Amino acid sequence: MEELAGRLAALDPDAGAAVQVIAYFDRLVEGRAGLEALVRGAAVLSGCPARLVDEARQVRLRVEADGRRRDELGPVRPEWPSAPLIPGGAPAVWLERTGPRTVVDAMVLERTASAARHVLDRTRGRAPVHGPADDPALLETVLDPTAAEAARLHAARGLGLDPDGQARTIALRGGSQKQLSLSLASGERALVQPVPGPELPHEGRVGVGPSVPVLELPRSWSAARTALRFTAGGSDQDPGPRVVHADELGTLALLSAVVAPGIEPPPDVRALDHAAAAAPWLLPTLYAVITSPSLRTAATELNLHHSTLQDRLAHAESLLGWPVRTPQGRLRLQLALTARHLARNQV
Amino acid sequence: MTTTPPPFDPELAAALAVMGEQAPTTLLPEWIPMARGLGDDGPFELPTNEVLSRDGAFEVEERSVPGPEGAPDISLIICRPTSVPGPRPVVYHTHGGGMVLGNSRMGMDLTMEWAEELGLVVVSVEYRLAPEHPHPAPVEDCYAGLLWTAENAKDIGADPDRIILAGGSAGGGLAAALALLARDRNGPRAIGQMLLYPMLDDRNDTPSALQMAGLGIWDRTANDTGWTALLGEARGTADVSPYAAPARAEDLSGLPPAFIDVGSAETFRDEDVAYASRIWQAGGQAELHVWPGAFHGFDGLAPQAALSQDARAARVRWLHRLLGE
């Protein structure tokens, strides 16, 4: 009898069901129910399998919609609704269901995660890591290619990562300090996220490393740092992408080896800097041109009349000394703008 | 003595909170007509023949067979496994409902689970309900169906030497009464009696009945409603027959092996534990499970709960041992 699920499904999802979900979990918490009962509640109330995974405390359990425990943890699918144990953290509770998310799903996830967090804290000690101040050494270890494998796996668990799963690194400059991150002497910060996992940081410049097995995170980190050098602040003086994925750089990544701060920049970069000093509109205008499918859309984006843009580009061409409206000239411009980021951004 | 009730198991308490009015704690006599209507639709919908057939694993028929002497015919639901050659052991099922509610399809999801697992025939009897039909009508209807089942076992692919009496709640009480009746009338001897949280004692005054008043499912007031409907003025007096209230039987020897389960947080806890103890004291065989923090009928109302899963599994294991297969 899948009566509970049936009953809830029949209820008004916005009113009655939500109240019942709250009542159900309140009673579980009151009765000091264990983790399995919580996950079973999630499964039964939502009518689909539910799982809880807390790698840091080595908890993995899964319950099917009929209430039976069956810990066959296949890979997590990114489209499953999920909730973290702590706000902003990695997902820890999933409903194994695709399709539109309901109000009840969200409520079930929130209540399960919140109750599970308390049970975990009560029965298995507080999670080892709550912020960078707690143990940045774990991040350092997981990103260190010279650390022993066992040490890196231990550190990964401590960070809440599945040792058999995928993860990615993020190199970050600027933005808030909310997330667990390791600050490096060079000024950027390192983040590690499970994949699938939380969103990218919403602020600051972000270099995203490829998704890799946990033991290969040092490789992801090195790529993320490279990607970070291709980012820009986004101001008129520094137009460019705020977020760059290492995976999407392709051959451009090679450029990072030859252009760097402290090395004499290529002549085209110097020409750009020189021209930018003469015409403050130059950099944002050129950036719009290389990132827009046509000059017409570039003009719209810049809020300029098409003919005004043409005038500006003619001016830019005379300042730079090469055409920017031919395919070849456009490529040269693109490379120069990219090299300009590399010349300005720390290694 | 303290009246602090044992706490409900957390999962069962949560289910109870969600079910709310759909799983009422009590029953008053004037609510009986309304309560009877609940089975017709809604959450407690009873299994149709198609559901009982379990995708063709069983052939389901309803048969009208002779009732007790001078009484109307009774109807039996007969479910025969289609892929297991007979004769097979047969579960003779008496439904629950406090002697006042329900019909022969109630509780059949449980018996069909056993039947599918073990390849059993199931016969479920439609008996007349109190208060319109007080004692002995319900138990005599059940007994008439048992006689027919034993005598016609071959026709329905059943083995008359392997009858298991089974029922929950009032149906558990009826199953226990059938075991007593069959013993005393030299009727069909069952090989086992499966008594799920059985309703056995019309006196309704055990510590558990007092302790759980107003709590859980089928509290003392509901129990009073059921017994009074069945026995009228005689309830609680010395005149009550053991075939109405098996706890009244003075002799519990010579009965088929019993399986008895009950929740620690329900009215029937103490009378059911006492019944098992008295079977042992009489030299009989009984297996007793008291599920901690369980309310009456917990496994049906909250089948997903860990305790419910364990309780269901324990019954199937007992059947395996009883039947040696």
Automatic annotation (TrEMBL), chain A:
Q: Which Gene3D superfamilies match?
A: PucR C-terminal helix-turn-helix domain
InterPro entries tied to this protein: CdaR-like_regulators (IPR051448), PucR_C-HTH_dom (IPR025736), PucR_C-HTH_sf (IPR042070)
Q: Pfam families per the record? A: HTH_30
Q: Using the record for this protein, list the coiled-coil segments as residue ranges, or answer none.
A: none
Tell me the ranges covered by the PucR C-terminal helix-turn-helix domain, including all copies: 282-339
Report the PANTHER family cross-referenced here. CARBOHYDRATE DIACID REGULATOR, DNA-BINDING TRANSCRIPTIONAL ACTIVATOR ADER
Q: What is this protein called?
A: PucR C-terminal helix-turn-helix domain-containing protein
Species source reads Streptomyces flaveus
UniProtKB/TrEMBL annotation, chain B:
Q: Which InterPro entries match?
A: AB_hydrolase_3 (IPR013094), AB_hydrolase_fold (IPR029058), GDXG_lipolytic_enzyme (IPR050300)
Alpha/beta hydrolase fold-3 domain spans which residues? 92-298
Asked if Hydrolase is a keyword of the record, the answer is: yes
Record keywords, A-Z: Hydrolase
Membrane-spanning parts: none
Q: Is Hydrolase set as a keyword in this record? A: yes
Entry-linked Gene3D superfamilies: alpha/beta hydrolase (3.40.50.1820)
Report the domain of life of the source organism.
Answer: Bacteria
Annotated GO molecular function terms are:
hydrolase activity
Q: What is this protein called?
A: Esterase
The record lists the lineage as: Bacteria, Bacillati, Actinomycetota, Actinomycetes, Kitasatosporales
